[in-house]
C-alpha cells in the first residue's frame, strides 16, 4: 500500500546539516514505495505566527500557507526531522507547524532527531512528542536518532561512518512502525470520521 508521507524540516541556519537527514529519509521512504515529500520550512517561508491558517476566511490565507494546508490534509502520515537548539525545539519548524492544527489531526507522526554531538537530539525529540500529541497526532514509539551528523553522510548523501551505519540499520524498524500506524489510521478514518 502506497502512503503519502510529508517529511518536515525546519532549520534556517546557513550551514544546516539536518537537511541531509531529511533528504535521506525522503529517499529511503520512496525506495520502500511511499510517496514521500520534503517540506522545508525555509523554502515555504511562512511569517512568524500571527494568524493560523484556520483564522483566515476561505481563500484569504496567503498562497503558500493555503497550499501547505492542502498538502498536510492530504497526507497519510508525517516525519519530523529535528535538531536540538539549546536543549529544545527548532524555532523554524515550530513556527511552521503552529500555523496549522486540524490538518494534522488523526494521523501518525514519527520523529527523527539529530545533533552535532553524541546525544542525537534526544531532548528535542522528547519535546516534540508532547507537542505533536497535543496537536492530535499519534507519535510512533520508534524514534530515529543520529549523533555527529556532520560526519554521518558521504558526498552522495548516503550514510557514512559508524553513526551513518547505525542510522541505516535503525531505519527499517522506524519506517515499519510509521507504516503500521499510517495504515491503521487511514483505515479508521475511512470507516468513521474522527469523533470530534
Automatic annotation (TrEMBL):
Protein name: NAD(P)H-dependent FMN reductase
Domain NADPH-dependent FMN reductase-like stretches: 4-142
Recorded coiled-coil stretches: none
Cited InterPro entries: Flavoprotein-like_sf, FMN_Rdtase-like_dom, NAD(P)H-dep_reductase
Single GO MF descriptor: FMN binding
Superkingdom of origin: Bacteria
PANTHER family: CHROMATE REDUCTASE, NAD(P)H-DEPENDENT FMN REDUCTASE LOT6
A Pfam entry, by short name: FMN_red
Record organism: Sphingopyxis terrae subsp. ummariensis
One term under GO cellular component: cytosol
Amino acid at each position: 500500500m502506497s502512503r503519502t508521507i510529508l517529511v518536515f524540516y525546519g532549520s534556517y541556519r546557513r550551514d544546516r546539516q539536518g537537511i541531509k537527514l531529511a533528504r535521506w529519509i525522503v529517499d529511503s521512504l520512496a525506495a520502500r514505495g511511499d510517496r514521500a515529500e520534503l517540506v522545508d520550512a525555509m523554502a515555504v517561508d511562512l511569517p512568524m505566527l500571527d494568524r493560523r491558517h484556520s483564522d483566515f476566511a476561505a481563500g484569504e490565507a496567503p498562497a503558500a500557507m493555503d497550499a501547505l494546508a492542502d498538502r498536510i490534509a492530504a497526507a497519510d502520515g508525517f516525519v519530523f526531522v529535528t535538531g536540538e537548539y539549546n536543549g529544545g525545539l527548532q524555532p523554524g519548524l515550530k513556527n511552521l507547524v503552529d500555523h496549522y492544527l486540524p490538518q494534522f489531526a488523526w494521523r501518525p507522526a514519527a520523529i527523527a532527531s539529530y545533533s552535532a554531538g553524541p546525544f542525537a537530539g534526544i531532548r528535542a525529540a522528547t519535546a516534540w512528542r508532547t507537542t505533536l500529541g497535543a496537536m492530535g497526532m499519534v507519535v510512533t514509539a520508534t524514534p530515529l536518532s543520529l549523533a555527529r551528523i556532520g560526519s554521518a553522510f558521504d558526498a552522495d548523501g548516503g550514510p557514512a561512518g559508524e553513526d551513518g551505519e547505525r542510522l541505516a540499520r535503525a531505519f527499517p524498524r522506524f519506517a515499519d512502525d510509521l507504516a503500521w500506524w499510517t495504515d491503521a489510521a487511514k483505515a479508521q478514518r475511512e470507516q468513521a470520521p474522527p469523533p470530534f
